[in-house]
Amino acid sequence: MSSAIGIRHLQAFIEVARCGSFTRAAERLHLTQSALTTTIKQLEQDAGLTLFDRTTRSVVLSTEGERFLPVAERLHSDFTAAMTDLRARAQLQQGHVSVAGSPSVVTRLLPSALAEFRHQYPSMQVTIRDESAGSLEQRVLNNEVDFALAGNHSQQPELAYAPLLRDRYGLVVPSDHPLAGRESVLWQQVPEDNLLLLSDDTGIRAQLTRFSQRGQIPTRLDQVQIEVSNPAGMAALISQGLGVTLLPALAADVHSFAGLSFIPLETPVIEREICIITRRGRALSPAAAALLQTLRQHLAQIRLPAWVKAVE
């Protein structure tokens, strides 16, 4: 079809073929008979074929019209279905959202916010990925997820980082540790001889390394004997008395750390910033935007863990 031929020409052709009458077809399409006749003539002229054999009493498909009818019906049906799907997505009746988050965000914040979202939009499909910060950023860059919730791991120029939460770093120790129960601990008091850390591929470790390299914290990180790739494994090691660790408050507020003590660190006070990470120049889908709005509203309403605060 040329640029002058569109879906209205297909719809007109199909209706005339079904009715066998320009008069009845025009009534069903809410058109004047002259307008419908002009539309069919435009289609025939563009095709270079006669699609209807007309007599004073009837209108019947020509041989070429009979061949074209199933094609026209399929094209019209596909277009109608596609538009219905687009409208449904715009109205949040259906759709898919893919979100990536750091372990603490996925465990501590997303479940309750997602419950609210599912209550409002029960037909929505949601995929959640729990990965390290570097992987999260790459998934956003690759358009594999709509957005990510994590720290700014590498300041990618193609990504936008909108602050969502800040949580304070602290020392996590067994409940019977000599430092347990204190209101705060100085960074100089961190026991470096039995310090456990998350591995280099995690956002928390990357941030601690930057703090150390810039001289913002006095703790040495290069003598660590045990590294773990996820906070849950870290909690198990601490519970067994193998050492202590440095974590942001939200990461230490998950079930794995129940029974352990989190003591905020001071002099200096160091915080992690959790951001909404999106691809620059890429608009969020209506479903993704709705989930993000639900998350923001949820965070404004709930009582956040100690030492965690929302960014206004």
Topology overview:
Layout: H1 7-19, H2 22-29, H3 33-47, E1 52-54, E2 59-61, H4 63-90, E3 95-101, H5 103-108, H6 110-120, E4 124-130, H7 133-141, E5 147-151, E6 159-174, E7 185-186, E8 195-198, H8 203-213, E9 226-228, H9 231-239, E10 244-248, E11 260-266, E12 271-279, H10 286-301, E13 308-310
Parallel strand pairs: 3-4, 3-5, 7-11, 8-9, 8-10
Antiparallel strand pairs: 1-2, 5-12, 6-10, 6-11, 6-12, 6-13
Helix pairs in contact: 1-2, 1-3, 1-4, 2-3, 6-10
Write up what this structure looks like.
The protein has helices at 7-19, 22-29, 33-47, 63-90, 103-108, 110-120, 133-141, 203-213, 231-239, 286-301; strands spanning 52-54, 59-61, 95-101, 124-130, 147-151, 159-174, 185-186, 195-198, 226-228, 244-248, 260-266, 271-279, 308-310. The chain has 312 residues and is an alpha/beta fold. The protein has three domains: 7-90, Orthogonal Bundle (Arc Repressor Mutant, subunit A), CATH 1.10.10.10; 95-164 and 273-310, D-Maltodextrin-Binding Protein, domain 2 (3-Layer(aba) Sandwich), CATH 3.40.190; 167-272, 3-Layer(aba) Sandwich (D-Maltodextrin-Binding Protein, domain 2). Strands 3, 4, 5, 6, 7, 8, 9, 10, 11, 12 and 13 form an eleven-stranded mixed sheet that branches. Helix 1 (7-19) crosses helix 4 (63-90) and helix 2 (22-29) packs across helix 3 (33-47). It is rod-shaped, with a radius of gyration of 31 Å.
